[in-house]
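Students often ask what a holo structure prediction actually looks like on paper. The answer is less mysterious than it sounds. You provide the chain, you provide the ligand, and the output is a string of discrete structure tokens encoding the 3D arrangement of the protein together with fe (ii) ion.
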Amino acid sequence: MNIMNVDYDGIIPNNVGLNQDIRVRKALERWHPGYLDWWQDMGPEGFQQSLVYLRTAVSVDPKGWAKFDYVRMPEYKWGILLAPQVEDRKVAFGSHRGEKAWQEVPGEHRAMLRRLIVIQGDTEPASVEQQRHLGKTAPSLYDLRNLFQVNVEEGRHLWAMVYLLQKYFGADGRDEAEGLLQRRSGDPDTPRMLGAFNEKTPDWLSFFMFTYFTDRDGKMQLEALAQSGFDPLSRTCRFMLTEEAHHMFVGETGVTRIIERTCQAMKEAGIDDPHDVAAVRRLGVIDLPTMQKKANLHFSLSLDLFGNEISTNAANAFHAGLKGRYREDRLKDDHQLESGTYPVLRLIDGRIQNEESPALSALNMRLRDDYVVDCNAGVGRWNKVIEGFGIPFEIKLPHVAFHRHIGEFSSVKADTDGVILSDGEWEKRQGDFLPSDSDRDFIESLMHPQYEPGRFAGWIAPPKVGIDNKPGDFEYVKIM
Ligand SMILES: [Fe+2]
Ligand SMILES: [Fe+2]
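The corresponding structure tokens follow.
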């Protein structure tokens, strides 16, 4: 079959020859009803019958892989799509560097590989669960459609990981695939595996911050897994990355549009002081200091997803050739890291300082550093918008020691500049750094749906261009 094109004949669209692979096809067909039950229970609430203008992958060709059409979400073509195989691909790093990339699971690394796949897989349905109530307060049909696009693609990402589990891991893979449908974001008894994926996404500012910061963690993890010597994992992650780009676009432009609207309203009302929160809020827009607090929250929660700065798990996964560095293929070194060092920010004698650490143990730190650079690029673009309005305010990412629950800094309280605070000071000042109850109440007071085509809630500007070049008043979702 042509790997570029997706076979839509069976229940499960795919470009992996599922029709000939009877064992795996049967396993996935058995898993499918449970997935649909999960989607009905935990997917977007109140919109399962609506017609949504969604893109569906019809090919894995990077140029033009999607087609757009109205779809009811439960009928979305969730499929299994792998990027084309690279001929003669080699393991590019670790102790197996230079060997042929694996088409089957390397027996000695089986447990580690399964764990990596399950952890990645668990984040995908988690975010759908976190976002399931947002449709009720969408600021426009355009945004509603974007939310649902992100949701169905996260669903597809779950399929991508489940395919690997079912195809390559036999009975324990099947159990893990079941487990992915059993856990629930925020459930005290059966939570999702990672902290940030058990937090609430209560409002649309949170949603945009989440897709900006947390989906970007997803991007970094996928980039690292796309380097994997286990070729099917690499190929599936490469295609997921093309979808992930849209999620971060939704986040970045969502925040940009809120900033734009706020600045515009301030200018019109003649308010120059961005810290006059009460005056700005009276305009029915979100003040910039509150946006900063939301950024602080979502950035710090996302940093936790990178795990401990010094990690033997990360070292082992690299050494085994399973999980590489961000853009491993563009780095110029020995790709084995047996000897080099990497500077790691640590808490030493109560002070935050850099320490040269074995490079192999510092891989989480390194990926997190790459992530912070990536985050800062978009923050710079947000600040350009504010600057363009002549408003003296700059959004800054907080220090990496701020508000951490995992790693070096989880044992201390630090402010957004990385100054360590006593518990008492933290109690007094945390409302300066993180959204307070009254901030949340204010944002919630703005969250009313705007479902009229072409119209937008008053706290967010319209986008510059429509999805699929549709005109401004296009009916992206036919609500039923
Ligand atoms: Fe995803
Ligand atoms: Fe995503």
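The mean pLDDT is 96.
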